[in-house]
Design brief:
Family: Belongs to the nitrite and sulfite reductase 4Fe-4S domain family.
Cofactor: [4Fe-4S] cluster; siroheme; FAD
Protein name: Assimilatory nitrate reductase electron transfer subunit
CATH topology of the largest domain: FAD/NAD(P)-binding domain
Strand content: 15-25%
Organism: Streptoalloteichus hindustanus
Pathway: Nitrogen metabolism; nitrate reduction (assimilation)
Number of strands: 27
Number of helices: 14
Helix content: 25-40%
Strand order of the largest sheet: 3-2-1-7-19
Distance between the termini: 46 Å
Length: about 500
């Protein structure tokens, strides 16, 4: 039987993960012949960790998802630095920028999204390119441009107080830049946070050297001087970093006549309006998915790999409940579920604790005794416990105050990461449980690095790394036979 010809347009986090999932199910490439097109010249990288590159805590090599020999080892025809120009859905062909043509049995769109630049005077030059002193924060190349343009100690303005904008702001502030965040809404991260937490977060950022201007818009960029705001004031800035949102990359889909709204419309089989074309990640629009986050993309990649390899023809994508974490040094923030609920809503129990002077805020929304939503700032123990409850759908402890303070354990709970139940979800991005980590350890993956390679735990947003390390340390103490079965120590260093 001839292998099914599958072409993937996009070699970002979604496309790379899909290729990995296909080869996990079809390692010998007998069922699926895989071609992956990447418009960027370098290997796939973890976009979630780019704020660490900007901050200087991670090297560019540290965020790579694949090494230079990955494609050859995995029997993937990988073509980087090559964009798709046109899709011929009738002929089932993809026309390439170099003039080549690829036929396909199934086409997977994983084109992601692009940074949106607001129509502020002076952000673009006469040709429509970014003006001097302006950068966006979306790709690895964007990081390189920002670091090259940011003169040491020079003031920087960040347009946008969402998740990505705040991560960029914290990274640049950590490098010694005076940073001002300009946000047109009355509080930061309004999609994930309520007003109360937004205010506490702004105060916390202020202590870290980040000024916040709310409820104002940038009306003009003056090169070398900064931004003029809608209230007439100015923000001095040698560099303006735009992080005002993203737009799905749907140009190929639109030109091919596929159904598109904010993204390429897909059903539970990730199928577009053409039965031979699928879409995953930021470019796809599914009813149960929040855009811009890695976990839905990777869940979709697993489902689609099941379908296209035949490993599970009944697989369906039903949506992903997400936990949003702000990855910024000295700021511990998690938001999950439905947080925009008033305290007087009849079918919900809403609790709120505020401690602005210490940078702490916690809001908990319960329905039928279970966590329906939460915001936790500055209380990592509480965030960990509440997230466990949310993931497991377990009843919340009766002592709600202890839960908000991080002093309560889930039912049958854990006093430390090592004491988590086997079913506890450790890595949300990759759906890795504690039990899977233990199994991998006993199979020889002894150490953080080995557990990461085997299970992918901590390779997504990175927020579970402490828990993974805690479990590895516990296993090294309690299962010394397994520990010596390999030359890798619990810290991930070679023992020999």
């Amino acid at each position: 039987m001839n292998a099914r010809q599958v072409v993937v347009v996009g070699y970002g986090m979604a496309g790379a993960r899909f290729a990995e999932e296909v080869r996990r199910r079809d390692p010998d490439a007998t069922r699926v012949a895989l071609t992956v097109l990447g418009a960027e010249a370098h290997p796939a990288y973890n976009r979630v960790l780019l704020s660490g590159v900007l901050a200087g805590s991670l090297t560019q090599d540290a965020v790579r998802l694949h090494d230079d020999t990955w494609a050859e080892r995995q029997r993937v025809d990988l073509r980087t630095g090559l964009a798709a120009q046109r899709i011929d859905v009738g002929g089932r062909k993809v026309e390439l920028a170099d003039g080549g043509v690829l036929g396909y049995d199934a086409l997977v769109l994983a084109t992601g999204s692009r940074a949106w630049v607001p129509p502020t005077e002076g952000l673009l030059d006469g040709s429509g390119a970014l003006a001097d002193g302006v950068a966006v924060f979306r790709t690895l190349d964007d990081c390189r441009r920002i670091l090259a343009a940011a003169r040491p100690g020079a003031p920087v303005a960040v347009l946008g107080g969402g998740l990505l904008g705040l991560e960029a702001a914290r990274g640049l502030a950590g490098r010694g830049h005076p940073v001002t965040v300009v946000h047109p809404v009355d509080h930061l991260m309004e999609r994930q946070l309520d007003v109360g937490c937004g205010r506490v977060l702004a105060r916390t950022l202020g202590r870290l050297g980040i000024a916040v201007r709310l409820n104002v818009r940038a009306t003009r960029h003056v090169p070398g001087r900064g931004l003029v705001l809608s209230d007439g004031s100015e923000v001095p800035a040698e560099l303006v970093v735009v992080s005002a949102g993203v737009r799905a990359e749907t140009g190929l889909a639109v030109a091919a006549g596929l159904a598109v709204d904010r993204g390429v419309l897909v059903d539970d089989e990730l199928r577009t309006s053409d039965e031979h074309v699928r879409a995953i990640g930021d470019c796809a629009q599914h009813a149960g998915t929040a855009g811009g986050l890695v976990q839905p993309a990777w869940d979709q990649a697993a489902v689609l790999a099941d379908l296209l390899t035949g490993a599970d023809p009944a697989a369906r994508y039903r949506g992903t409940p997400v936990v949003t974490r702000l990855k910024a040094r000295d700021v511990d923030l998690a938001a999950l579920g439905d947080v925009h609920v008033d305290v007087d809503e009849p079918d919900a129990e809403v609790l709120c604790l505020q401690d602005p002077s210490r940078g702490r805020y916690a809001k908990l929304v319960l329905r039928d005794e279970r966590v329906a939503g939460a915001i936790v700032l500055g209380a990592p123990d509480a965030a960990a416990t509440i997230t466990q409850l949310y993931d497991r759908g377990a009843p919340a402890p009766s002592d709600r105050l202890a839960l908000l303070l991080g002093r309560a354990l889930p039912a049958g709970g854990a006093a430390s990461p090592a004491d988590l139940p086997s079913s506890a979800l450790v890595c949300r991005c990759n759906t890795v449980t504690k039990g899977q980590l233990v199994t991998a350890w006993r199979a020889g993956a002894c150490g953080v690095a080995a557990l990461r390679e085997t299970t992918r735990a901590s390779t997504g947003c990175g927020s579970c790394e402490t828990t993974v390390r805690g479990i590895a340390d516990w296993l090294a103490r309690t299962e010394p036979a397994a520990k010596t079965a390999t030359a890798t120590t619990s810290s991930g260093r070679a023992a020999s």
